[in-house]
User: What shape does this take?
Amino acid sequence: MKSQIKRVQGKALEEIAAAESVSALNEIRTRVFGRSGSFALLNRLLKETPEEERPLFGRLLGDLRRIVTTSLKRKESLLGKEGDQAVIGDLDLTLPGTASEYGAAHPLTCLLNHAVAILHRMGFSCATGPDIETEWRCFDALNTPNDHPARNEKNTFYLQDGRLLRTHTSTIQIRTMERQLPPVRVFGSGAAYRRDEVNATHLIQFHQLEGLYVSKDVTLADLKGAIVFFFRELFGQEAEIRFRPHFFPFTVPSYEIDVRATVVGDGWLELAGCGMIDPAVFEAVSTKRGDRAYSPEKVSGFAFGIGLERLTMALNGIADIRLLTENDIRFLSQFR
Assistant: This one.
């Protein structure tokens, strides 16, 4: 048996020395130490040797395993170094290196993060909702009549089961009031979808940021104070804010918000809409909840909404809204 062990060891070492690849080494390892390999066969023969000879042959088998394993590792390391050297052998170290490019947040994301940080300081918490909504949450609960143009299939993406892609993120406000008792002070942001013609100022998917505050004795003064604080934190304390009467089905009174600030150019720029929550919205929520927690006699509140694309374009001097969605590195690299 001693001669067999030496024969197996000698052959293995010869094959290892002649191996030219890691895969060849793996084949040798399998032939020697595999389940049906030479080492397993010698181990079975050890059981058949006289008991007094087993310690000697056991040590020889241990030496075989150690020597062959060490040789395999050394050869594997050598082949790896030779492979690395072959790869870099023709490398010209005098050539200039390849410059590393660093990415940055999308300008829309930068604006959203800034706005959210301001709202957090104002005491607003984040609320979420799905992009696919029911017609009730998108229109009925928000006091939008059946003949309103927004409910037409030419303006809204309806699904076969009657649901739709939300046309505004105000659906998040309805969901929040459905599950949470007043007082409520939340903001929600996300994508909205409308069947608009894609051009320099319109997309079929855009992003909104909306706020909702509902409690006892909320007044128009609270709304104005919140809006003025928010936009001056966003644009600077010198910013001027103007409220123009407008109409939204879910607020009364309703206002468009214009801002004049050096960071968005000269003149007034329409950037948001707001208003006091219409009592009809509170009644719809109360009916859905089955209680009077949001009874117009008990609570009042305000809401506001901002189009993030329009605001991003104003802040960065972007003339075409489509640039925000095309992922053109030549455009995005300007915002690093």
Observations:
- The longest strand covers residues 205-215.
- The two ends are 73 Å apart (CA to CA).
